[in-house]
Amino acid sequence: MTEEQDLIKACLKGDSKALESFYDRYAPMLLGTCMRYIPVRVDAEDLLQEALIKIMSNLRGFDFRGKGSIEAWMKRIIVNLSLKFLRNKTTKNIFVYVGEESLLDLNETRETELDTTDLSIEEIYQLIGALPVGYRTILNLYVFEKYSHQEIATMLGCTEGNSKSQLLRARALLKKQIKELRTQKEALPVYGN
Question: What is d(CA 68, CA 84) in angstroms, rounded to the nearest whole number?
């Protein structure tokens, strides 16, 4: 039996130390995932609590499939709760729908990947959090959760072309934000010894 299986088994028995260990081990990852979608910390923390309740309520039915399967299962729960939160938070559709032909306007964003080597993880998450909600959502689903555009389209009720277009626009906007952040950093005075 693996360490994860032992922890799950102890949690199911109601072992308070195991529950604390479970929380300490997985809550930061779940909160980080949630905050990529919901950058307002208070909302993300509320969703984390909702996710943990749902996880604990359904833990007995969890089917262990090897190392990392519990994390993948919990991430799906937090992502689905985040998407539900985004849908409920707004009365209008959060996604900008564009035709397939608009993809041609964005070809310049395909040639280069985003260079984030000089940025901290906090800066990257702040830039992602500043993206419009539709861009941010699709970027997260595609880049971090590894969903295909077809899967994203099904999840969000849009077309594959819209998913692709949103991702390209998100990357273009991120490139612009990264460039602006670098310019701001370069403009800061350096105080020497």
Answer: 24
CA dist 63 and 193 (Å) reads 58
pTM score, whole prediction = 0.76
Q: What burial class does residue 140 get, using C-beta atoms within 10 Å of its C-beta: 0-12 exposed, 13-18 middle, 19+ buried?
A: buried
How far does CA 86 lie from the centroid of its chain?
12
Tokens of 107: 């070809």
Quick: pLDDT tens for 29-81.
999 999 999 989 999 999 999 999 999 999 999 988 888 899 999 999 999 99
Contact 77, 54 (CB under 8 A): yes
pLDDT band at 122 (very low <50, low <70, confident <90, very high): confident
Judge contact between 158 and 93, C-beta under 8 A: no
Residue 56: the pLDDT is: 94
Place of tokens 């564009």: 98
Q: Are 37 and 79 in contact (CB under 8 A)?
A: yes
Helix (H/G/I), strand (E/B), else coil: 180: helix
Joined together, the tokens standing for residue 93 give 């559709």
Task: State how far the Cα of 75 lies from the Cα of 29, in Å rounded to an integer.
Answer: 8
For the chain, the first-to-last Cα distance in angstroms comes to 56
Length of the chain: 193
CA distance 155 to 77: 13
**What single-letter DSSP state applies at residue 142?**
I
